[in-house]
Amino acid sequence: MLKNAFRFGAICLLFLFSSKAATAVSLPKIFGSHMVLQQNAEVTMWGWGNPGEEITVTGSWNQEAVKTKASNLAQWQVKLKTPAAGGPFSVTVKGQNTINLEDVLVGEVWLCSGQSNMEWTTKAGIDNGAAEIPKANFPSIRFFTVPRRSADGVQLDVDGEWVVCSPETMPNFSAVGYFFGRQIYLNLKMPVGLINSSWGGTPAEVWVNPQAISKTENLAQAAAKLQEVPWGPVRPGKTYNAMIAPLIPYQIAGALWYQGEANVSDPGNYAQLLPALIQNWRQEWNKDFPFYFVQLAPYKYGRPHEGAMLREAQRRTLTTPNTGMIVITDIGNKDDIHPRNKIDVGLRLANLALAKTYGKKELTYSGPLYKSMKVEGDKIRIQFDHAESGLVAKDGKALTHFEIAGSDNRFVPATAKISGKTVVVQAKEIKNPAAVRFAWDNIAEPNLFNKAGLPASTFNTLENFADSN
Question: What residue range is the signal peptide (predicted)?
Answer without folding.
Answer: 1-24
